[in-house]
């Protein structure tokens, strides 16, 4: 009887010792994992923060992914210390992840699109863009939506997937933009004189870029021989900031200069001939 009790006590002692070792090991793993996860989180934020073009939101997301990956790995290691079959846990987590992914398909698509927008940077805050039918100045790029203000001051929040899934036109990206202003003159007017007048209008405006500052020199071209007018074109480049003021004001200056030189801007005309078909 005493021998059986001693064997039972030895078994309990062995199990208790193994349990104590496992608990202590698990606590050490948790503490070390927590410290390493926090250190990795801070290291990623500091490392990515050195890149000036890296968005703060994307930095936080990547740092958070690293931290939670380490914590999940530590949790699986702790469960393995207690004899839990981690393969089944991973399979269960995969199934749960698949179910959540299907349920939140639209949300996850917005997050994925937000990460791509923040990483590839087709536009930045302050740019005026046209993205898949949504036009406006970008106010904020988030993980789920992009906030924009239209040209007439209306706020709009656009899902990132709607922006990323279509054509993106960034009107603010390049420092210069080209103008093509069309002006019609009468067929009776002197084309070369009209081109000289329009060329002088371009030369007088300091916003029109020339030389090394411009991709091409200012030009006046014959664009079309239309039904009621000879269409001339003023093609020139300005800085992006001067685009709309220069476009509006040079249209006015062109009209005034042509009027001052006696060159007419015709309007569509139609000759109507009436024939009397009554019998004489």
Give the tags.
280 residues, alpha+beta, Helix Hairpins, SH3 type barrels, Alpha-Beta Plaits, 3 domains, 5-stranded antiparallel β-sheet, 3-stranded antiparallel β-sheet, 7 helices
Can you tell me about this structure?
By secondary structure, the chain is of the alpha+beta class. The chain has 3 domains: 9-103, Orthogonal Bundle (Helix Hairpins), CATH 1.10.287.1260; 123-170, SH3 type barrels, CATH 2.30.30.60; 176-260, 2-Layer Sandwich (Alpha-Beta Plaits). The chain contains 7 helices and 8 strands; from the N terminus they run ααααββββαββαββα. It has a 5-stranded antiparallel beta sheet. A 3-stranded antiparallel beta sheet has the order 6-8-7, with helices on one face. Strand 2 (134-141) and strand 3 (145-149) form a beta hairpin. Helix 1 runs antiparallel to helix 2 and helix 6 (191-204) crosses helix 7 (243-260). The longest helix is centred in the first third of the chain and has 48 residues, at 2-49. It starts with a helix and ends in a 20-residue tail after the last helix. The model has no long low-confidence stretch (mean pLDDT 82).
